[in-house]
Design brief:
Length: 432
């Protein structure tokens, strides 16, 4: 019977001379090593992987200048995930995406934080090559919440707001906005195992312009985009008061004319009471107050003063003042009665000028009267002179012809006329 020769190292004998049996993984490894061609110039290539918790990660082991060497992928615990296209690890989340002589690509679904770490790509050459890729698992923050110290704030009050981003990885960054304006908060980070909780505090002094404005808490994190939450501010404030002049719409408030004022008040809550009063004096009896309106039908100088409108709500009281100054009524001087009509313009006096305005009006009247008298006197003088010259011219012609009426001829008439001129002084006639 022919004898059998066993390879050295492939069998062993015990005390009973029974042949030894190698473990199956070692046999597979030896068989694979026997099939791997020896050579240099092999290069492994891979990339780090970043994935969000619950999503799919893809790990790739690639070979440059492939010579059909065996590619193997191991997890962070050095357990074989895939040996060529065979998966020894019983984790169904790992699936083969692609296998060839130059690439081994594997996907991992429903990634969790426990999957994070180094994954090794091995190539069975002589000597063997190995390279690792790092998987980073991101966890987005949960339960982004804004807590506000007071739901309703009063104007001028400082309130505290807190925004909390829970259980994120890595720690998140929180930014604050009031409307479109970015504000600065103060953040604190707490770590629980592999997770981080971040709380940011914002101190804000509110005004009436902040009522109804949103305060936004915005998260900056690589695992999430545009994650934010917001709260609308509610601010109460005391009334804002204004006094409007309804009549007269334009011009001065004159004596004898009416005056109408309206008080407007707006606040939060809306003012419940609006009232009029006169500062440093009693309200005149003829003043009519109806709600937010004030009416004076016939203004006079005793109405001068400051009138105040007050409005109040649960927050406080506010007021607005109106200063009344009653001017003199318009003054018109009638024209004098003469043959020449002279009209003086209407003069509006400002009661703020006092006696000076009255003196100016009197001066204009006196000047107008004097001018009228002078014109009247000149007209009378012209009439008298005219009548005087007319009388004396008639007397001259009468004396010149006297003596010629009884003459027999022209020569005698001339002689009588000349003689009449010589004796004219004896026969003078006077006319009054």
């Amino acid at each position: 019977m022919a004898s059998r020769t066993e390879p050295s190292g492939c069998s062993g004998r015990g005390g009973g001379g029974a042949p030894g049996v190698l473990p199956l993984p070692l046999l597979l490894l030896l068989a694979a090593a026997a099939l791997v061609p020896r050579g240099d110039g092999q290069n492994l290539v891979t990339e780090d992987v970043t994935v969000v918790e619950g999503e799919v990660a893809t790990i790739s082991c690639r070979v440059k200048n492939s010579d059909d060497s065996v590619i193997q992928l191991l997890n962070p615990n050095r357990q074989t995930i895939y040996f060529k296209d065979f998966r020894p690890l019983k984790d169904s989340r790992f699936q083969l995406v692609n296998f060839s002589n130059s690439e081994l690509r594997v996907s991992l679904t429903n990634v969790s934080v426990s999957d994070e770490g180094r994954y090794f790509c091995q190539l069975y050459t002589d000597p063997p090559q190995e390279i690792f890729t790092t998987m980073t698992v991101l966890v987005p923050p949960r339960n982004l919440v804004i807590d506000i110290q007071k739901d309703i704030a009063t104007e001028g009050e400082e309130i505290e707001l807190n925004c909390t981003a829970m259980a994120s990885r890595p720690a998140t960054t929180i930014r604050w906005f009031k409307g479109t304006k970015e504000l600065t908060g103060k953040s604190e980070v707490e770590q629980w195992s592999d997770m981080f909780t971040v709380t940011s505090q914002l101190l804000l002094t509110v005004g009436r312009e902040d009522d109804g404005v949103p305060v936004i808490c915005l998260v900056d994190h690589p695992a999430v985009k545009d994650l934010q939450t917001q709260r609308y501010l509610e601010v109460i404030y005391k009334p804002q008061v204004r006094v409007l002049q309804n009549y007269p719409l334009q011009g001065l408030t004159r004596e004898g004319e009416p005056l109408e004022l309206t008080c407007t008040a707006f606040g939060k809550p809306q003012p419940t009471e609006v009232k009029w009063l006169r500062v440093d004096d009693e309200m005149p009896q003829h003043v009519v107050v109806s709600g937010s309106n004030l009416l004076i039908n016939n203004l006079n100088k005793t109405d001068n003063g400051t009138y105040r409108c007050e409005a109040s709500n649960a927050v406080g009281k506010s007021s607005a003042d109106y200063m009344l100054f009653v001017y003199d009524p318009p003054t018109t001087i009638p024209p004098p009665t003469t043959t020449t009509t002279t009209t003086t313009p209407t003069t509006i006096t400002d009661s703020r000028a006092g006696d000076e305005g009255s003196i100016r009006a009197v001066d204009h009247a006196v000047i107008g009267g004097v001018v009228a008298v002078v014109v009247f006197a000149m007209l009378c003088l012209l009439i008298i002179l005219g009548r005087y010259f007319a009388r004396h011219k008639g007397t001259y012609f009468t004396h010149e012809a006297k003596g010629a009426d009884d003459a027999a001829d022209a020569d005698t008439a001339i002689i009588n006329a000349e003689g009449g001129q010589n004796n004219s002084e004896e026969k003078k006639e006077y006319f009054i």
